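Q: I'm writing up a methods section and want to include an example of the input and output format. Could you take the sequence below and give the corresponding predicted C-alpha cells, formatted cleanly so I can copy it straight into the document?
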Amino acid sequence: MPMNNASAPSSSWTGMVPVDDTALAVTDTGGPGVPVVYLNGQFATQGYWRRVIAELGTGWRHITFDERARGRKSKRSADYSFEAAVRDVDAVLAARGVHRALVVGWSYGAVVGAHWVSRNPERALGAVLVDGAFPHDWLDEAMAQRIRKMFRRMNLFMPLLRPTGLTPRMNADQMADSNIELGRLSRERELGPVLDTITVPVRYVVASGTSLGSRGDEQEQIRASLDAVTARNPHIRIGAKVASNHGAILKKDFPAVAEAVREVAGLDPGDAEDRR
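A: Here is the clean output for your methods example:
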C-alpha cells in the first residue's frame, strides 16, 4: 500500500474547523498513511464511514467531517448550497494541512467528490464514488413536487431526532432545495462535462435496487448512465456492482468500497512526498 512520507500529525485529532459563517466537526486519524477524505451523503454523518475505515485499517490517514447543520456538532449556516459543500472540502483539507488526498464520496458526496477532483487534478490522488454522481435527467417538475412533499412529511418527526444527530438541523424547505439543486446538477448536460474532464483514477461502487423516494426501476435507469461515461473517459471505471441498495451499501458492502480505495491508491502516479 502506498505511504505518505511527508510529515503529518502522529496522533488523531477531533475538533471544529471554521469556514464561512459556520464551523464543521472534523476527525483526523493522523499518521503517515495516504490521506483519505470521506464525503457524506446529503443528510448523513461521518459515522456512516466507520465500517469502511475499519476495513482499511490504520495504515491510512482517515479524515471525516459532518457538513453544515449535520451531525451533533457542525453549526448551522445561511448557505447550504452545493458550492458551499465543495468549499468545505478545501477548508477541511487546508485546516488539516493536507495538500493531496484521495476522495471517497457516497450519494451526494459522490457528486461533491466528482466536482472536487475535476477542479483539482493536481491535488487529487483519485476518487471512489459510491452510488452517486450519475449524469441523468431524473429531475422534472413532478419530481420536484414529490421531493417537497416528501420532506414536508418527514419534517413532522425529524425534529425529534435532531438532538441525536441523525437528522440535519435544516427545515423542510432547505432540505428540499438542496435535493432539487442536486437534481439539476445531476443532469447529463451538467454532470457529464464534469466527469469528462477528470484526469485522475476514479472507481465507482454501484448499488442495486431502489433509494429513498425512487420508484420502480428509476434508480437502475439512472445508474445505466455510467456506460456512456466510462466509454468516453478511460480514467473512470466501475469497480464493483454490489447487491445492497443505496441506503445499505456502506453497511453491507463496505469491503467493496475499501477495495476500490486500495485500487485507486495503487494507481496514483504522484510522488508520495507531495501528499501532504
